[in-house]
Amino acid sequence: MKKKIQYLFIFLVLLQSCSNKKKYEYNLISSKVIQLPKEDYFLISSSCIEYNENKYGDFLYYLTNNVTTNSNEIIVFDLNNRKIQKKIIFDVKNGFTSTIHGFSILDNKTFICSNINENIFYLTDFNGKIIKKIPYDYIDKKTGQEIFKLFSRNEKPIKKINNKLYFSPTLYTSLTEKEKELSLLFSFDLTKDKLVNLNLMFPKNYVNSDFFDPNYSYCFANEKIVFSFNNSNKIIVYDTKNQKSKELNVQSDNLRSFHKKTSVQEIKMKDALYNTVTYSSFTEIIYDKYRNVYYRFFYPGIEIDKTDDNLASKANHFEKMSILILDEKLNKIGETFFDNKLRFYSNFITKEGLFVCSNLPQEKSENIKYTLLELKKNQ
């Protein structure tokens, strides 16, 4: 009888142990590495990079700086032949007030570009020729919210849905109580030249919490826009068709704790670096249209001493990250932990999968590398 009780106890312990280990349906597996040629002026991996598939082949478009002319250029890289096809220049000679700071591919013929020093969208062809200039000076009469310094990049893109541009305004990292009620989403009707406030706000219980942080990212998925908040498990799904939104919670298995915010004036530089390194945070959400899944990037935070000499470098580049894999309904179907030095801020999606930057060139001759993370179903 005593032995039976012992066996039963061992069985229950094993059962509990197994139940605590979450098994998901999908995982991300590191695969091949591709290299982008780096010329003398190409300084760093780009946070404004897009993949485009058209009748001529598969291409990467990425924004980089030419230190000779001090202007930004879009490099067009042929993925099939592994070579630079052309460079698209944006400067005064081509009708621009100055260089551009961001771009987005609207379709197989058109870019939208912008400069943070002027309130104008430029619609251009794939040679950089201006098709149309769109001024967007706007102040909301009810809230006083102003639209300014817009530019498209990976974590906050400007995209077109049914002849309307959708974008998020520039918000400061420190908001007053009134500014916390500002809208996160606007549209611009390209046929009517009309800018509209869509009145999408931060989640109320998030704004009113001690964990509120105004930083966020978003992505486009067909006619939906999905917002991910850096210091919260919350996400918002906005449907552009019916103009309705819903809130969901998507949590990482590697969550330590989010940081409780204090007044900016009270934080010293070393404390700010320590908070960045030790606390958990989400960094970006992207949509993979080829596999109909979302990837939500997450930094779990690490144990570290405030006096650590590497505090600044660890805050500048997270050495540990995980990627949450979400299905089309944003249900969690996987999470892969990466204990390496992938640079998650520069990424793109192709037919093959998710590519993430895997090095920061130290020498002029060194190429920029991207590692393919393939979505695999667990056996």
Would you give an account of this structure?
- This protein has 379 residues and is mainly beta.
- Helix content is 10%, strand content 41%.
- The protein has 4 helices and 26 strands.
- It has helices at 2-20, 204-207, 269-278, 311-316, and strands at residues 26-36, 49-54, 57-66, 71-78, 83-89, 102-105, 111-114, 120-124, 130-135, 138-139, 146-147, 159-161, 164-167, 186-189, 194-197, 216-221, 224-229, 234-239, 244-249, 281-288, 293-299, 320-326, 332-339, 343-349, 354-357, 368-377.
- The protein has a 4-stranded antiparallel beta sheet, with no helix packed on it. A 4-stranded antiparallel beta sheet has the order 2-3-4-5, with no helix packed on it.
- A hairpin with a 5-residue loop joins strand 7 (111-114) and strand 8.
- Mean pLDDT is 86; it is low at 7-21.
- Pfam families: DUF4221.
- This is DUF4221 family protein.
- InterPro entries: DUF4221.
* Count of alpha/pi helices: 4
The percent range for strand residues is 35-45%
Average pLDDT, all residues: 86
**Which bin fits the share of residues in helices?**
10-25%
| Radius of gyration, whole Å | 23 Å
InterPro entries: DUF4221 (IPR025316)
Protein name: DUF4221 family protein
Helix/strand layout:
Elements (H helix, E strand, L loop, with lengths): L1 H19 L5 E11 L12 E6 L2 E10 L4 E8 L4 E7 L12 E4 L5 E4 L5 E5 L5 E6 L2 E2 L6 E2 L11 E3 L2 E4 L18 E4 L4 E4 L6 H4 L8 E6 L2 E6 L4 E6 L4 E6 L19 H10 L2 E8 L4 E7 L11 H6 L3 E7 L5 E8 L3 E7 L4 E4 L10 E10 L2
Give a quick set of tags describing it.
379 residues; mainly beta; 4-stranded antiparallel β-sheet
